[in-house]
Amino acid sequence: MRTVRIPSDSVAMAGSEIRTDVAGRDIPTLGFVFRASLILAAAFILFGLIWPDLLQSALQSMQSVVVTTFGPVYVGTVIVVLLLVVVVAVSPVGKLHLGKPGRTPEFGWFSWLAMLMSAGVGLSFLFWGTAEPLLHTVDPPPGTGAAGSEEAAAAGLRYSLFFWGPHAWALYAGVAIPVAYAAFRKDRPVLISSALYALMGESTRKLPGKIIDLLAVIAILFGVATSLGLGTRELNEGLAHAFGVPIGYGAKVVIIVALMTVSTISAMTGLGRGIRWLSLGCATLSAALLVFVFVAGPTGELIGAIGTTVGGFVANLPGMSLATETPGSVWEATWTFFFWAWWISWAPFVGTFIARISRGRSIRSVVAGVVLVPGTISALWFSVFGGTALNRVRNSAVDPALVDGNVKSALTVEVFSTLPAAEVVAVAVALVLALLFITSADSASFMLGSSTSGGSMKPPRPVRLLWSFSAAFAAVLLLAGGPESLQGAAVVAAVPFTVILLAVCVSFVLMVVRDLRRPSPWAETPDGGPSPGQSASPPPAGT
């Protein structure tokens, strides 16, 4: 065993001494963040096992308080982050690259998009794609038309895009770009705390920074457990409706164990193999399903739905973005506040994951890939799947009671059963759901391992395995408490990270401004060229 100082282009634990094996691979020290997060996760799991009813009531009570108090704060945070991301992308700063000159991206464009999309949506994307426009149609947003009307249906499509489109993905970019900037241009670890360097200085390596990373890990764990729990619940109901699988807590546990086993194996193989391959498979199969539904469904109506969705979204963007509360209505609390809390709770996981896979790309290309491309895909996704669902309900091909009962999974299965080759489609849908679950879970396990290993680019396999089990146990416990507990966990987890997210944005602006005034080694000017006095060629290898 030997101790070395890593080269500046290797950022696992840049600027600090770490242990390496004989092959030069880093062996990160599992310090405060790992121990503290593991203790807190174990305490949560034990608490849920001993007092499940108390856990459920506590999460529900906290959700009520948090939504009432912080709902408008979530709305404001989303707006601030979206505006910052857009301004950075269109400004000369957007040409800056996240890495040293000459560094090429680690992953190709399609692989990169597949990985970030698969990690960022989860299997609820498929269920909500068909169900959400219908749910908004029967319970429309205030001031958008009577329930069941054409106006309400149009509002349902645009609000679905609103909750899953550029606003949501900007939260991911708002974490990914600052973390990647600090990591790959400042040689900091790939950690949330690194993005706060401009505000905290070397304190990011001390206890204050470790507490920031600890809060991020807790947010990741709760956010992922919430999504996996909700997705498992919906998957169980969908499989029951399609294939007669029994519905129950035991069946849900079996689903989690089976899929988490595959995701754990994927996480063990690393980013370039299991995670990348499964993400490519998920993206390819999802795209094929989207094209099939567009062609086999009411194509003419769907073309119109795409125009209605995008046009309505753009025309109503200010009103939707700024709405915080309608007198006498709980719609914003039920939908807007919860969705923004959900996305914020996922931002530390997906944001750091995107940062990890984005070295070598320009800031502008990251914004395009993280905000514009997913926003476009979401518009097509909800227009095609949601438009098909609306058509089937209007024509009585789908039981309207499923809409009234808010049974998203059964509703999705029922809509797909009206298409040609329904049995083949059912199998394809099941595969897409499984892949969406697995690709979210394996990416989360990888980033939990990285975040608790000092930001290691290749976290130890035992640590990844440990976090896979922890996320699965947390999801099982939250499932026992029902959907209210699942939603409560996401809303509560978003509170501390909202403050951190805003601080990250401020720190990023300060880093960029300072760099433009006092260029750091190998920095680029806003036009993409070398800094004044710097050579246009990259630094020698190993410097």
Main sheet makeup: 3 strands, antiparallel
Order of helices and strands: EEEHHHHHHHHHHHHHHHHHHH
Number of helices: 19
Seen as an oligomer or otherwise, the chain set is single chain
Q: What would the average pLDDT be, to the nearest integer?
A: 81
Under CATH at level 1, the class stands as Mainly Alpha
Kindly report how far apart the N and C termini lie.
Answer: 23 Å
Write down the CATH topology.
Answer: Amino acid/polyamine transporter I
- CATH architecture level-2 label: Up-down Bundle
| Rg, nearest Å | 23 Å
Unreliable parts: 1-25, 527-543
> What structural class do helix, strand and pairing data support?
mainly alpha
Task: Describe the strand arrangement of the main beta sheet, using strand numbers.
Answer: 1-2-3
Helix fraction, binned, reads over 70%
Instruction: Tell me the number of structural domains.
Output: 1
The general outline is globular
Q: Quote the beta fraction.
A: under 5%
Topology:
Blueprint: E1 2-5, E2 17-20, E3 26-27, H1 32-50, H2 52-90, H3 109-121, H4 124-138, H5 150-164, H6 166-186, H7 197-200, H8 207-243, H9 249-269, H10 271-296, H11 299-315, H12 317-322, H13 331-356, H14 363-394, H15 400-404, H16 408-417, H17 422-451, H18 461-480, H19 483-517
Antiparallel strand pairs: 1-2, 2-3
Helix pairs in contact: 1-2, 1-8, 1-18, 2-6, 2-13, 2-14, 2-19, 3-10, 3-13, 3-17, 4-5, 4-14, 4-16, 5-6, 5-11, 5-14, 6-13, 6-14, 6-19, 8-9, 8-13, 8-16, 8-17, 8-18, 8-19, 9-10, 9-17, 9-18, 10-17, 11-14, 13-17, 13-19, 17-18, 18-19
GO cellular component, one term: plasma membrane
Family: Belongs to the BCCT transporter (TC 2.A.15) family.
Main location: membrane
